[in-house]
């Protein structure tokens, strides 16, 4: 079964053709990141405009690279939630137009379910149930994936998402948006024990995360140093901060693994590209004898192949939408 995937929830316009949820025939991504950089973050209005301009060409390119035409497809999967509403609407409306004109089924896909599905593309042997740490720019969840379309959130962030926490701390250190990627690179050169930072936990909810206090600790450290005229080592601070964030993620993930008796662990979302997070997850899984599934680096960030992959399982579960499908800025991965 061939599905076209369309993704436009944030600042990447993407389209892909995927066979049976597991084999990528094409994957095209038009990133707007350079344009948003000068503003220090994604500007929603600009994102929507760029999606509108790019989407037709990106979908055409994905079809052309796959060697397939619209008549070869069995369905159109599209990200409908969560994300920037104006950005989501571009993908949803384009997908609706295609579905209406071709008569193909329209399959709505939750963006974070898509991130989890990037593991189905990278590891063909992976099947639910498994435990997944989903860490992106907007979300940080520990998810029990009972089945492809039956998911339960066991832990979540109470404030900033992990990606957001990386980006904001990076910005405070003068690293341009999206700082998380660069902070990770710079951290490789630093001493992770140079600065003592808090490891926040949420009272009464041991699987939940809280990163805003950690981010504030970095801001305070930078301000204090500035006032005293002291030098801050950016590589050391990047390394110490990355260690603190990753310590929290790893601690809660493996606490959840113990509580659920999970036999398989996966990572997903933009932050799953983080070098330390991958190394630490690999080390703990090795020690515990648990298989670890990591998305290929090319599939960690936003892409449409993951949407087509999850779309395949949504379609098999009967989750097909009508022409009244709407985009939702917020929606739980469980729904
Ligand atoms: O999943 P994603 O591409 O978009 C959302 O759905 O939000 O995640 C983007 C986030 C950004 O905050 C970015 O800084 C972060 O993922 N990110 C990283 C790394 N690569 C991307 N954070 C830390 N280390 C990385 N290597
Ligand atoms: Zn994403």
TrEMBL record:
A GO term from the CC aspect: cytoplasm
Presence of keyword Zinc: no
Class of this enzyme: transferase
Keyword annotations from UniProtKB, A to Z: Acyltransferase, Cytoplasm, Iron, Metal-binding, Transferase, tRNA processing
Principal subcellular localisation of the protein: cytoplasm
Cofactor note: Binds 1 Fe(2+) ion per subunit.
GO MF entries: iron ion binding; tRNA N(6)-L-threonylcarbamoyladenine synthase activity
UniProt-listed Pfam families: TsaD
Domain Gcp-like positions: 23-308
Record EC number: 2.3.1.234
Positions annotated to bind Fe cation: 111, 115, 302
Subcellular location: Cytoplasm
NCBIfam families found in the cross-reference section: gcp_kae1, T6A_TsaD_YgjD
Entry similarity comment: Belongs to the KAE1 / TsaD family.
Physiological role: Required for the formation of a threonylcarbamoyl group on adenosine at position 37 (t(6)A37) in tRNAs that read codons beginning with adenine. Is involved in the transfer of the threonylcarbamoyl moiety of threonylcarbamoyl-AMP (TC-AMP) to the N6 group of A37, together with TsaE and TsaB. TsaD likely plays a direct catalytic role in this reaction.
Name used for this protein in its record: tRNA N6-adenosine threonylcarbamoyltransferase
């Amino acid at each position: 079964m061939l599905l076209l995937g369309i993704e436009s929830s944030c600042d990447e316009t993407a389209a892909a053709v995927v066979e049976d949820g597991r084999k990528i025939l094409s994957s095209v991504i038009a990133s707007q990141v350079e344009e948003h950089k000068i503003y220090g973050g994604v500007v929603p209005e600009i994102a929507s405009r760029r999606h509108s301009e790019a989407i037709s060409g990106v979908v055409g390119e994905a079809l052309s690279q796959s060697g397939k035409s619209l008549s070869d497809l069995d369905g159109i999967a599209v990200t409908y939630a969560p994300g920037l509403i104006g950005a989501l609407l571009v993908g949803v409306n384009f997908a609706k137009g295609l579905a209406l004109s071709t008569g193909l089924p329209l399959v709505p896909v939750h963006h974070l379910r898509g991130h989890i599905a990037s593991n189905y593309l990278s590891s063909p042997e992976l099947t639910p149930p498994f435990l997944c740490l989903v860490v992106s720019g907007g979300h940080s969840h520990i998810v029990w994936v009972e089945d492809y379309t039956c998911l339960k959130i066991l832990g979540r962030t109470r404030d900033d998402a992990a990606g957001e926490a990386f980006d904001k701390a990076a910005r405070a250190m003068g690293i341009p948006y999206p700082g998380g990627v660069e902070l990770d690179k710079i951290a490789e050169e630093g001493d992770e024990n140079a600065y003592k930072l808090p490891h926040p936990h949420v009272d009464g909810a041991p699987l939940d995360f809280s990163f805003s206090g950690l981010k504030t600790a970095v801001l305070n450290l930078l301000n204090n140093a500035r006032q005293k005229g002291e030098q801050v080592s950016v590589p050391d601070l990047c390394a110490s901060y990355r260690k603190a964030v990753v310590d929290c993620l790893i601690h809660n993930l493996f606490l959840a693994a113990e509580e659920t008796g999970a036999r398989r662990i996966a990572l997903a979302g933009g932050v799953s590209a983080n070098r330390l997070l991958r190394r630490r997850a690999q080390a703990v899984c090795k020690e515990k004898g648990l298989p670890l599934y990591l998305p290929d680096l090319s599939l960690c960030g936003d892409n449409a192949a993951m949407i087509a992959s999850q779309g395949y399982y949504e379609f098999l579960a009967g989750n097909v939408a009508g022409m009244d499908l709407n985009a939702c800025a917020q929606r739980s991965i469980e729904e």
